[in-house]
Hints:
Low-confidence stretches: 1-16
Number of domains: 2
Amino acid sequence: MPASLTSPLPAQRLNDEKLFYVDNIRIVLTILVILHHAYITYGAPGGWYYKEPTTNIAALIPLTLFVSINQSFFMGFFFLLAGFFSYSSYHRKGTQKFITDRVTRLGIPLIFYSFIFSPFLSFLVYRFGKEQPISYYQYLATFDDWIDFGVLWFVAALLLFTIVYVMCGKLFIKWTKKQLPAPTIKTIMLTALIVGILSFIVRTIFPVGWVLKPLGFQLGYFSQYVSLFIIGLLAAKNQWLKHLTYKTGKQALKIALLLFLFFPVFYVIKTKLNIPIEWYSGGFNVFSLLYAIWEQCIGFAIITAFLAIGKQRWNTSSYLLSYMSRRAFAVYIFHPVVLIALALILRNWIADPALKLLLVAPLAVIGSFVLGAIVLWLPGTKRII
Length: 385
């Protein structure tokens, strides 16, 4: 995620501890966002501006597997990092400066995306995806979906979390006076289990896929997002990353791999019992409970493995990695136009959509970073993005 969202300083300078690996993880997560939306474009479950789904079952299964595993951790990971760096930023800047900075760096992108970028993306799909001969001016004359944060729902949620944190800052300090040791793998997985149960309870009312409009919040995932943002605050206060061990990371990786192998069980259960796939998305049933617990356990394990193993093996930097990290937020904001444009350009190519994905996915990643670099060349953008 962007440095402006997750850290007031370059990550490697926080508390004089080298955190190059956090910047590197941010790059990976940003790339995963692009790939996630590319996979949805060509058949994986989920909502997106333009979809051209494959009907090839041999492709649909790995597409679904990818987005399911990805969804279990990638956005929650962003919230954890945001909470981690928000803690030090708030205590360094003070309330007024911290709020002013966050409103500027989060609010301006939200306004831009909702009132300028989102209508343009919708027009591209309407004009070229649905082949409607209409001008942009004519389209805007009938456009009425002006409050649409799109992929920046994360920014809207982060702004909300930040405001709540500032309002409750004194209580947070009071309740967390005691120094807490870095969690063991048992504590991490127990926390994941609890969050999984909370997710199940929330999804009995707000199943996966239910969106709170116009904010774009899928409340079925917010048990994890809120929990990981708070965990990020606690991690910063108690210096958990500094004390997170490589052993814990290897344990988490083994758990993640075991849980990964369990995923086909859900498909077998669905097939053998002929249950609706929606039962895994929510409702008061054992399948929703099992999936919610599995999702949080594998998600927490992957996050822990990334942090602990990354700290040991990936705590280095280079000009290219630093360059990509600085442009991650711009890439996050603007990648939809690159992905949509590529998909529309290849729309009339007579080929299975799964084959198109093999071409579009890497081009979307490369094109998004190129566009992100161009955006940061524009005057004034570096102060916001």
